[in-house]
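Course assignment 3, question 2. Fill in each field.
Student: A.L.
Task: Predict the tertiary structure for the chain below.
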Amino acid sequence: MKNFLLGTVIVVSGCGIGLAEGDPLRPRSTSPAMRATRASSLPTLDGDVINDPAWRDVEPAAGFWQTAPVEGAPASEATEVRIVFDDRNLYIGVICYDREPAAVFASDSRRDASLEETDSFQFILDTFLDRQNGVVFGTNPAGMEYDGQLTRKGAGRGLEGGAGRGAGGGFNLNWDGAWEVRTQVHDEGWSAEFAIPFRTLRYGHGAEQVWGINFQRNIRRKNETVFWAPLSHQFNLHRVQLAGTVVGVEAPKQRNLKLTPYGLGEVRDLESDPDVTSAGEFGADAKYNITGGLTLDLTYNTDFAQVEVDEQQINLDRFNLFFPEKRPFFLENAGFFTVGNPGETEIFFSRRIGISDDGAPIPIYGGGRLSGKIGSFTNVGLLVMQAESFEGEGIPSNNFAVARVSREFPNRSSIGGIFTNRQGTGSLAGDRDYN
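Answer field:
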């Protein structure tokens, strides 16, 4: 068996960018702030924010500013955002006022489709207030669900990978959280109501949270992009160090356990196939929040049959294609395991687990994965997986282990290390079958 990208490697990296006073990348001392309030009555999740009494007495965030077409100009249409919460969910209600409601445009309703060529609203939550990581949620007037996980300082347009669709550093669009959104188009424009369970989010300790937050609205017919916390035209919503803040969120302590079992059965004619001794199999995935920031994932007899199919690619050179990771077990905090340039030089690439050199799937016995944050600035990732042998190609059973630790600093510097190992096991493994 060829040794592939996984190897016994230790990498320590760090980069520092000194920011002088007045530097456009420096977090602004005048960033806007808003307050979330406990809901006196729960919103009716139907997209009607204007007539819902749950939003009536909540102070809105308003005053959006353009990045395009006229950077620094006030938004041409008003936008109001309100945030309430209960013991289970965070609710966000937005009214996108428009003097021409008939011109409100929605081009797509597929999950995670682009929000650039449509009227849309999206926001980012920096739940650890580290100004470097976060989760993004968005929608358009058709009620589309758009979400993704941001890691490593919030890449701007053309910087640090942009809005990549993979599972590495930058923006992981394949991460899908559990949440709901409803929208309505009406005489005032259009509006949306989001319900985001706290169990979908990861956050630090404390009875009352302070989170980074920013809102973006696109007005398609005017090619206008506006933000609540102002940004320069070269940046996008992912620039979390320039976001505003939301105070007053009373987030519950997290001790959530999610178990996903599965079973596969077969029906056979025993008269025509009398040697059948078993039919079907079973397995399970489990997710447990050890703390608000650390998540433990466990899997047994992993089943990836329901994973979204890869987009077709054509390879015109001698280099391997890097298909993004879409298997749910590997997606959460996938960016914490990234060292190198995604798709070019990566120390660890999870898609190599469970696949042979010629692309044939290899069953996985099981494994465990611990990932998340300790405090607000230390990222950790531990992964152990055991794959079955593949006798058809003489591939032994393999054990994969990865350990990753990194520390982020307020001046956009970081230092970290990674250890990776592949060890052949079983009768097909040689004496020195490891990498």
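Instructor remarks: Residues 284 and 350 are 20 Å apart (CA to CA). DSSP finds one helix and 24 strands in the chain.
Grade: pending
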